[in-house]
Amino acid sequence: MKTIDYKDAVKLIEEGEKITSSQRLNLQNQRLHELVEYVRENSPYFKELYKDLPDNFTLSDLPITTKKDMQDNYDAWLTDPELNVKVIRNYLDRDVSDNSLLNGKYTALQTSGSTGKPLMMVRDDYHNKIHGALVNLRLMRGIDPDILNPSKYRIATVIHTSPGASSYNGYLRALAAFPDYTHNMMALSVLEDIDTLVDRLNEFKPDVLTGYSSSLILLAKEKKEGRLKADLKLVANSAELLPDAGYKELCEAFGCPIINNYCMTEGGEIAMANRSQTMLLNEDWVIIEPVNENLQPVEDTSQFSHGILVTDLSNYVQPIIRYYVGDRVKVLPAKDSNSLPELKIDGRSFQSFTLAGKKFTMVFIITKAEVWPGLMKFQVVQTAPDTLQIRGVCYPGTDPDQVLKSLSEKLEEYFHESGCLGAKVTYSLKPMLHNEKGGKIPEYTNLSSEQ
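-> structure tokens emitted (451 positions)
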């Protein structure tokens, strides 16, 4: 296992900001070769994958890997022979009060699985120290480091509160780690309607608010209109795209530092924005390759990619090397020779809507519809202030009438359970509606003349 002292990790992060972009790229290449050499010796999967790799290889010589590749070859992918699916699964299923390390060495987490099979990721000491230092030095620069300490401040987070979600498990472990200060921590479900979120936040009176941009932006509007009373010292966005207009909305509403972290379970902390709209890519530790639909480099760098290839230069136990992720980005050159490059993200930003007088985001609908049996594509059409209509394309061999009917009934049940008793959810076999300006079919469109 590769390890590092935290002070040395801090030194490496600081040094990465002092050198030129060309020096960082040379350092990036050096770290890539060190990582590849290690995995060829310690991972059966990568040993076979890289068996014909030349000694003087370049990044593009390395084969592309995917989530399916990892899940199909999970045990062989790992570089520690003492780790396997069963060992990691048992660790992740341990009691939330157990803060021990996996095999006394590693941390582990998993995706929520809301859009597919959950992915388990193991992180070694080297990754944790490097990425921890990135957060402390680049994301939290100039901000009181104690602001996220529940013994001193009240922290509220708007997240998926389902048992399988890693963010919620992290919250539960934080409760266990600070048993005397659980009253200073609160997790709110991202599926709650905005009125409920406002009421609970007003009662809790947080100093810090973290969560997904779709909810944070709606809460900012509630603050500006006087319904949300929270006097915040910090707002932190993660997991969802925070558009420029959303950043301005948060700044105007809360008048406190706004930080934004583009991170993922596989690659860790990729890009960060500290009290700015500009996301800076941590290119000294993470390699991002924008690719087109054929997984080839994007020729027109002014356009957003179809996806990206991610390489985490710090994880030696479960290597992420040219790993495909479907996020749409573009990388802009550094403003000067010493600056980090800018990363523009065109990821999903969950839309909000008002139904029968209550405000919601598309989160619950999307997480259900994307995995609904028989449904290939879907669209939500608001036909009246109290009515949503579900349209979609179903897989061959299924009954579209039954597929869409069952989904509409499930969604209507959800809205009623959320206190929106006047909500109606219908379905239609009509074709999905296209955007008048072209491009993708929108997941949500509003045909109601009263909104």
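The mean pLDDT is 90.
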